[in-house]
Structure formats: structure tokens, C-alpha cells
Amino acid sequence: MKGVKPLIIAGIVAASAAVHANDLNKVIDKSSEITKSAAQSQTKIDKIADSMQGRLQQFKTLNKEIDGLAVYNAQLTKQLNNQIAEMQSMNLSMDQVSIIERQITPLMMRMITGLEQFVLLDVPFLKDEREKRLTSLKAMMERADITSSEKFRRVLEAYQVEVDYGRTIEAYSALLEVNGKEREVDFLRIGRLELIYLTRDSKLAGSWDTQTKTFAALPDSTISQINKGLRIARKQLAPDMLTLPVHAAR
């Protein structure tokens, strides 16, 4: 019986150890579950933290975009206001242009009429060319495909041509009735001071008399000077002094 007690005690101890081992395993398993759960919670926390950080960064980016858009909108507002002011100014200018156009057309008509009267009373040089220019101006005024500004430019151009005649010397050929017979002659125009003709055979010459409105015959002594003047006008001689009678200045 003495030998049985130690066995019983050993069995109890073994059983107790087994119980303790089983409890320990449960504790370890529970601890593992807790650790695993904590790890999963940490992962969720990390994801939430990352998400919050991303949202915070996105919020900051959006704020910067909003600030940029505010500046851009302010600039657009200024540009829009400037464009509105410019449009108002253009509308006012267009109204003024319409008024000017209504006034400038009668002015151009009067200018053409005045130019026509001037040519009629002037020394009769280049008659065909000057009459053709006037006819062209009159026809131009009836055309709708030419702007008022272009019409005015051409009228002023015609005036400028007439002004230039008064300070230039020119030689040209044309037909003229001399002693009742139409002949080809050379004309020498010295500004508006003198208009002289010389027949091709250099035998007859005359100058325009503003008093009688006819050509007056010139003496043979002037023919050499007329020929010299013609050559100067044609740039065949250098400019030089001419001795000629003056009728146009009377």
C-alpha cells in the first residue's frame, strides 16, 4: 500500500500538469487571437490614417486650386469690364463714323465740282487726261463697292496731281488746230506759268494767252528757246535758263 500512494500522487500531478498545459494553450491561443485582432485593428487604423492624410492633401490641393480660380476669375472680370468699355467706345465711334460719312459724301461732291471748274478755267494742258480723271471720280462716287475712305483718298489724290502740275515742267505731244488746220505739235508746259506749242517742223509756235483764251503766235526768234525747253523737260538737257514770253501770268 505504501507503493500505491506515490503513484496516485504522480498521477494527480500529471493530471494537474495536463490541466495546466491545456489552460496554457488556451491562454496562448487567446493571446494569439488578441495579437492577430490587434494587428488587424492596427492595419485598419493605418489605412484610416493614410486615407485621412490623402484627404487632407486633397483638401489642401483643392484650396490652392480655389485660390487660383479666384485670382483667374478676378482677372477675367477685369478683362470683361475692359471689353465692355471698349465695345461701348467702338459703338460711339461707329455712330460718329456714320455721321461723318453722311457729311463727307456731299463734301466730296463739292470738291469734285470745284476741281472740274478749276480745270475748265485753267491753262488747257493735258485736257484729255484731266477730263478723264474727273469722269472717273464722278463714276466712282456712284459705286457702292468703294468705301468712303477710299473715295476721299482718290479725290485728295486728284487734287495733289493738280497741285504738282504747278511746280513741274513737262513736254508731251498732242493734236492742235493751227491756222485752221489740225496738226501734231509738241507742248511745253512750265508749271502753270506757260503753255507753249511747237509744230513738228519747228516752223510755227505759240503760247496760251489767258486773256483771250487762245494760243497767240510767237516769233521765230523764240523757237530755239522752245526746243531747248522741250529737251530740258524730256531730261535730254540739264536744267538751264530759258528766255520765253509769258502770257499765262497776265
TrEMBL record:
Superkingdom: Bacteria
Q: Keyword Coiled coil on this protein?
A: no
| Any one Gene Ontology cellular component term annotated for this protein | membrane
Q: Which GO terms describe its biological process?
A: vesicle-mediated transport
Question: InterPro entries from the xrefs?
Answer: SNARE, UCP028069
How is this protein named in the record?
A: TonB system biopolymer transport component
Could you tell me which Pfam families the record lists for this protein?
Answer: DUF3450 (PF11932)
Please report the organism this UniProt entry assigns to the protein. Pseudoalteromonas translucida (strain TAC 125)
Q: Which keywords appear in this protein's UniProt record, sorted alphabetically?
A: Signal
Q: Is Secreted found in the keyword set?
A: no
Record's signal peptide:
1-21
